[in-house]
Amino acid sequence: MPLGLLKYGLSKEHPAPRFFRDCTQPKKSYDAVIIGGGGHGLAAAYYLAKDYGITNVAVLEKGYIGGGNTGRNTTIVRSNYLTPEGVNFYDASVKMYEDLSEELDLNLFYSTRGHYTLAHTESAMRTMRWRAEVNKHVGVESRVVAPDEISQACPQLDIQCSGQAPIMGALYHAPGSVARHDAVAWGYAKEADRMGVEIFQMTEVTGIDVKSGKVVGVNTSKGYIETNRVLSAVAGFTPRITEMVDVETPIVIHPLQACVSEPMKPWLDTILVSGSLHVYVSQSSRGELVMGSSLDPYEMHSTRSSLDFVEGLTSHIVDMFPFLSNVKVVRQWAGMADLTPDFAPVMGKTPVDGFYLDAGWGTWGFKATPISGKTMAETIARDVAPDMIQPFRLSRFEDYELTGEKGAASVGH
Amino acid sequence: MTSRIAKKRGEWINRDKPLTFEYEGQQVQGYEGDTISSALWANGIRVLGRSFKYHRARGLLSFANHDVNALMTDGEDTNIRADVWPVSNGMQLAAVNTEGGVLKDKNKYIDHLSPFLPVGFYYKTFYKPKRLFPFWEDKIRKAAGLGKVNFNYPRIIKPKRYAHCDVLIIGAGAAGLSAAINAAAEGFNVILVDENRQAGGSLSYDHAGEQAAADTLNTLLEAVEAEKNIRLITDAYAGGYYGDHLVPIVEKSGITKVRAQTVIVAAGVFEQPPVFRYNDLPGVMLGSATQRLVHRYAVKPFDKGVVVTANDHGYRTALDLASVGTEVVAVIDMRADGASQELTQKVKDKGIAVHKGSCIYEAVPTKGKLGVKEVVVCPYNETTAEADTSRSVRLVCDGVAMSAGWAPAGALLYQAGTKMRYDNDLEQFVPGELPEGVFAAGKVNGVFDLKARLQDGRRAAGEAMNYLGKAVSVDTVKPVSMARPSHPYPIVNHPKGKNFVDFDEDIQVKDFINAAKEGFDNIELMKRFTTVGMGPSQGKHSNMNAIRILARIRQLPVEKIGTTTARPFFHPTPIGHLGGRGFHPHRYTAMHQWHVDNGGEMMDAGIWLRPAFYAPQGSGLTASEAVQQETLAVRNAVGMIDGSTLGKIEVFGPDAAAFLERFYTGKFVDQKVGGSRIAMLLDEAGVMVDDGVAVRMADEQFYVSTNSSNAATVYREMQRNVQLWGMQVTLVNLTGAMAAMTVAGPESRSVVATLTDIDVSAEAMPDGAFRSGQVAGVDARVMRVSFVADLAFEIHVPYKAGLHVWKSLIEAGQSAGIRPFGTDAQRLLRLEMGHHLVSHDTDGLTNPFEAHSDSLVKMDKPFFIGKRSLQILAKKPLGKKLTTFVLEPGFNGELPQECNLVIDAGNNITGRVTSISFSRHLNRHIGFAFVPPEQSSAGSGFQIRTDSGAMVAATACEAPFFHLLESKGE
Amino acid sequence: MQDAVLMSPVAFAHALRKPVSGEVNGMETALSFAAADVEATRNETLSICDVSNLNRFGVKGPQSAAWLQAAGVTLPEGTNSWTPQDNGSLVMRLGNSEFLVEDQPENSLCQTLNDTAVETAGVHKVIRNDAAFIVSGKLTSALFSEVCEIDLEGGALEDNRLVMTVIAGVSATMLKQSLNNQPVYRIWCDGTFGPYLWKTLLGIIEEQGGGPVGFNFYYEIN
Amino acid sequence: MKLLECPVNGVRPLSEFTYGGEYRDMPDPDTCSDKEWAAYVHYRAGAPGLKKEWWYHGPSGTWFIAERNTLTDKVSRTYIAGQEESK
């Protein structure tokens, strides 16, 4: 057993301090206000403090930290995207994740498993090659593999998928990982707090005060706060925030659902995704299968569960793994995904001075947590978005310069 | 040693059917009707499992599927819930998650390490240095998990059914039965569901040593049986509540999805354990668990027991225990005031001592912590939750029954959107505001008195019937004055801990305190940090105590803490049940069987099955040989392909031409009858969506084709725009109604001519011409096309005649050497012709300017979908252009694949290959690629990088590729 | 199979069962799948019959109702309803402005309508390619509970109503009628889905102890 | 939601329908600016509330408008486009 745990057994009082202070009443003003205490918002706060020494920052969270999509996603981290700008961006995130446990002094259970995107059709195989080629070009380890190699990595997978959709190959992405989602939020919160950032839970933003095109403050359920810089990092709540400042975006909200099985001894070491079958699955360190599917088919601002989702998902799971027929689903839940038409985020400045947007994260937000925090912190600190996120600027839609991720409308996650 | 007692009235076992099974290598006797746990307990077996984290020995706790102490494997299946799973003859069972047997589990040492494994310990170590984490992670993963999955378990998918009813009632206890009887009597169609094997709820076990409850139950069951409007489903649970009253009822045989008009939740309550040190030892169980053992399975729970209670239910339990000969040493009542004089006296009359204001400070284990030896009883301070250890008494016993209170089985109510409120008199959450059409009755509604529960069931039925539009009077259920059913804080502090709150996850009181100290002092954060309620029983026995503990830590009232969200499923539900027998519709063309009979290699093409190529049995053809032969047949003689999967839409009406002009990029108003035009569809952003052909059959009749994969979408969009634009147009989707086949190649004209009355001569029928007539005696629509060859005829006939016409053409073409060809050859043929395929050679962002399709876009029309966006795009420089290309003659290196990249001298990605094939006809590799516009003109060279990284030179060239044949020296 | 010009969309799906075949309306047809008493037993439990060979006529457009009436056809009253003609032909109103006429073997309304030229604007003949089935027996509810999400037994098909719904994942039109004094359900779907739907329904029907019956079970062909 | 009322075919389960997106008024392409057109094509009113939406009943091929609250998923009425007054 590691020595680090000794203190707990040997001390009478619990020796661990609070992760973050119990802030209740915001101050009159802050240098920056971050709306949304999820992974993204907390990461932005952390990098503002760490990289730019801006610590007079309030993070406002209407629920509890990490309680939105941070705590509802299926925790897959990968960078095997289709466009060089996308691959570069997510690759930077993967690299940050690899060192993040040490940096945040918290075990995030970042576990590199290898990620297989299964292809069941010729056109899916073409898309896999496209992604593999772009990934390789940018220096990310991805390649197209044949069914026998998939079988070696996951012998339990029925390559014929019970005859419903035989697997023709896969895109193998070596850096594909999973992490403990809550811990990412808690780790950023802990370190941001340590540097002076104040985190307010149960604090809702009710309005944003804009004068002459510039942000001057925010109204909250705990009173008015003066500030010139506001970051919205609220995922499924983005349209409600952008409406407060009259900023138009393409973002629409669709629920994204997931479920877990009961725990079992480890057998699935890799992360598997099938676009055709709308399935992604990995096994958590608790032994549960964490499973997700495609987005709900229509707009809704709710985290209700649907039976259709779990019926569809499990019918495909049992095609892939026939022996799971009697393994049980314990729980299903949903998040609200903020979707853009080109499957890429919206990041950076907006037509309102001092109002910054970190949104459009659809189904790919968790994997971008560190890099989005870092680049948004830079945007806020310098009032200039770094080159890396220029392709994701809001104005690309007006300019008809959508990102190429739309090129192959592949299933993400 | 057996603790099976004499036959009990209403027992659930069948004594005429004894059976034998094996548990951990030991032979065990039971009866049909026993659960695994009841049979084991009857045989004196107390250790039924090991806990998830600390590997502590565990016995019965709730004996109601509200905990997972007893999870077993039979070698085939795993995580079997022994408390509720029926035992069968010859079963060979073992506890899961043990090493070396449940009694000697090698991992039990972890229990001793628990002080060093504080709450969330895994977040605090194992990550420095980073390289060691995989080592620790492997250890953690192996330690986690419960059962081992059997990879040979068969694929079992159960049928799923739909059902419909007026009133769905969840829970067939007193309230549910009463509601059902009352609703059915008014003519409503009722489905009544209970997860137990028999209806009755607590009436079947909570007897307090008397007969009244059993009598009431008999009366109710007789009434239900007599009522034809009630469908009673037992051994089935309501998995969850979904929108508009959809509730999946899960049985062992499969799921029934009930769409109800109204739902009454009468699901009762879960008994909650008081919390004290070693409350998890085998032999320490809930009061209701002992009652179930006694009355349902005729098993004496223990010989000499104590009852610890914080409500009156403990007294009832004591009376039930005493009635079957258990020596009840004492009732230890955590309440300072104890129970009513009357109830206390009843217990005392049985010779049972009553200790008011006392608690069990700790249970003392037998050797190996495999059971309970005695309990330490101390005076209890209800306000501070502290035991006065200076005045302790030890009571020897082999079992403890615990009754401290209840939590509502309100999962479905939460999922339906019920706002629950905390009732301070009951110390329980009860429904506050119910959603439309959802009602609650009985204990889940905070009604505990038996008569009141029956009345509450009637009341709920009345409200449901009013909701359904039937005016029946609804009684008000008056509160009955009774002792508080639940204790506000049935928790005893102990410096050494091991006072368990969540038995699934081995979470003790101090874990909550420590979590709060670390800042996780919000119920959701606490849940996530401690994992309380996240185990397989989903907090049924633990969430309420967790809320009480947090409320006390934060010095807030319970209602301020709130509850966590109860997500489906009520009980974990098998993947094979949920997935069930799905439907996988396929479409077949009229010629399907012919293709199969003639060696067609059938492939999924969207929802259709199509031949990729033909390799008749015995031909010995490989795929690529077959494709090349088919292609050459078309180039040199004649071939035929089944094109029935094309989308086919008839557009009728005075506005038909005007409609198509708005819908597609081309012009149709001036189109001549008998001619065809390309129909290219864009989306509003100017992206290419589809291309087909529009034939004008009459002034007010067009026949439009679409790509196979877009047929449904294009038809749907046409319908929408007809409605939106308010045009006089009638649309008919003929995709399935018409079979289609293309006869292609130099000999195609002569083959078609033999079977038709249409003049198909070059003069009478130029490329693009359309004629109606007869082919093989069948009304047909015939078009000159040039997609796969310069000379080709597309023939459309009614589906039912499709095979006849196909066979006739094959026969007519025999002398010309006709060959059927599949989709693979078609793709190569169109490539040789230089035709791109939308969504194969284009992607989700490609506009017509990039795809060399400018000429198909009539920008001088007033409007078409996507036009305004094209006007904007036209002002921007083109980023890429689709071009046809060739590789060097005789190229024999590593062949580029579709989606290999075009790379420039500066090692930048500038494009990609979208199609590539070797054409035997041309003896060259030909393809399509996106390249920078300046490299798209014929003769420009560019480099393609292969999978292995080799660079291959390619040259843009003009389409169609046939000019390559004339200029061999290129 | 012999060379009839017309082929039932589900012909190849039931070829394996080697029915006794004959030609009806120019179409190769499965006349019987088993001895009469076996088919009768199946029918009592749950049976399915392929009646794709019946002649049909489709018409669509804003003036189609008036046109049919002018041709002497009695129309069903409301949207999504049907009515029998005196000669036994069925006339179905699909939605509001589309009609499907189906003849019984002995009558020829469809032929007459097909031969009638349309000279009115707003009337468009529709080429039909239906797979058509008759399902009956005492276990129909068990079958429908597996393949259809709506409550077909709860009045949806009473009073000559028809429904357009999804059966086993496929769009279909359904009605309930009395045929040979027996309540039967009639199902139509796009013929290209026919083989799939036939196999799917038959699979469940056989699980329930029923089976296929031939065309002769309902219609005596001379 | 889960159940939706088609104006022609009545109440049906959601599985019979396809969502067609929000019903939006198109600006006049001849007079609007490029920016206005780009906004029409790409931007959406994403905030929760009562929306007019296109829905399609598959088995009958019926498009109609549903007025639905995207927060509560409650549908207040459905009608064929252009016929809302008659319903």
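The mean pLDDT of chain B is 96.
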